[in-house]
Amino acid sequence: RGDVKEALRGLRRLTVLEPNRAEYFIALAQVLVSQNDLIAVLPVMDRILQLAPNDADVITLRGIVLFHADGTSVGMQRAEEDFRRALSLSPKLYDCDLYLGRIYRRRGRMDQAAPYLEQAARLNPKRAEAFYDLATVYARMRKPAKAIAARRRFQEIALAAERFLHLKRRADVAPDEFALQIEVCETAIQREDRTAAHHYLARAARLLPNNSQVHAARRSLSELDSRAVTTSAKISAAASLSATIEGSDIH
Question: What secondary structure letter does DSSP report for 108?
């Protein structure tokens, strides 16, 4: 707890000393979200958008924070406006479609929620959230076959995530076992988890730097990196913030 307070003090001081550095405000927002202090995050997000008014990723993030921090009709309207504005700037944003679907679901408009959630599922079929929400929406729309299919897909993704977590734990317990390190790396590449892929590739390369699997994994990861949208430190931090908030969405 003391470390968090110290981090908050340091980051707040940095935002005062360097008021035009968006990355400091994003770092501050990350810490506040980790402490579930979403109300305090909102003015920080507003400042980020003063610095980057047309950044679709950050606009999306403010919408996510509003969705979780203010459940009133006014809060939902403000969040919806952010998501629609972000989509006008960048039309293929998973989180915008996901949360627009959630807003309509919260309003009881399942017929309007379904198309947004379906679009989110098409944009990123490897993420579970849209399928989880679709199962509920289809059930309330009295479409049992679609509800069952969405629930099954959600369970498949959740099970794969659980298996991956178990595999990472095994690799962490045995950091000198090459086969485990490279298996986690290859699985992470398939899952497009670049952070994990880099971490376990480094371990595998340390153990067997000239191994053919290491070379192949390095090429695959390089291709994945080149396709990644999060090419700047600011957007990378923003993606991390989004993931932090998303962690509490599925129960």
Answer: T
CA nearest 52: which of 242, 238, 240, 226?
238
Q: Which of 159, 167, 209 minimizes the C-alpha distance to 186?
A: 167
Report if pTM > 0.70: yes
DSSP state of 251: -
pLDDT tens-digit map of 64-105: 989 988 889 999 999 999 999 999 999 999 999 999 999 999
Q: Which amino acid is at 127?
A: R
Hunting for tokens 């986690």 — which residue is that? 184
Distance CA 181, CA 178 (A): 5
Count of CB atoms situated within 10 Å of the CB of 205: 19
pLDDT digits (tens, 9 = 90+) for 175-199: 999 999 999 999 999 998 999 999 9
